[in-house]
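Form 7-S
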Amino acid sequence: MDSSGTLPTLRAPRLRPGDRVRIVAPACPPGREHVARGVEELTAWGLRAEVGEHVFDQWGYMAGRDEDRVADLNSAFRDPGVRAVFAAMGGKGTYRIVDDLDTNALRRDPKPVIGFSDITHLHLALWARCRLACLHGPFPNASDAWCGPGSADAVRRALMTTDPVTLHRDAGQATAAVTVEGTATGVLLGGNLSAIRTETGAGLPSLKGAILFLEHQRGTGLGEVDRALTQLTRAGALDGLHGVALGQFTGFEQDTGDPALGGWGIADILRDRLTRLGVPVLGGLPAGHGAHPPTIPLGTRATIDTAEGTLTVEPAVV
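Output:
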């Protein structure tokens, strides 16, 4: 079923002082001091923050064995007293456990999952299987240099109020140069491009009728973005999109003007792959792997307006 189908979006009640929330680690292991900082921040909001049993485990580069990481998630989903679930970190490994999520528990008792990067795998799986609205937001373990008071307050407002979220185009972002004029409305889905690509053919929900949000952090270079967008196009995953909202594509500054790349930079790749979709594209949103990230609801109705340079999203909580 496409994103505009008849199944309703599941939205959790907004958080209130005294609510319990739990930090889990679906991907890589976080530092203890960082998690302690997250607990301190959440406690300052009046919440009762808990840490999952296996958060500080390590198995290879992951925060414990697959069965233990998913057990922490499902324990939080099944506990009626836990009202929101925070990912401690991204990295690698979430894709290994998404098939074992207890989405029936979330259907009975919806609660938002907050995170980004590798946590996009969770967001996509939870939308595909139970239409849960989640939050693309920072991990509760960051320093002021990366996630200052403004970012922390944006998470708090996204969880504890029912205000819509509006992001404005930042002309200084590399993707700001990518624009296809127009307005579009649809359910906002997406997140990290690598995660979306990985889920192609393995549980990626239909994006028909959606606004697709994309962000990415540089790995091997321009070719990785080209391959990901080409794979999504060839697989038909982008058919029926209503629009595209582009966040940050960090680390690609070194490519711009490189003669070996024919003078292309990240904006050229995105423009070449996305303009042929024939839908409005809004670039330049300051959301992704950069410093001081905003928090964006996923799974709720959104509108992009390229003339105004805005993405406006309905809240993930009620």
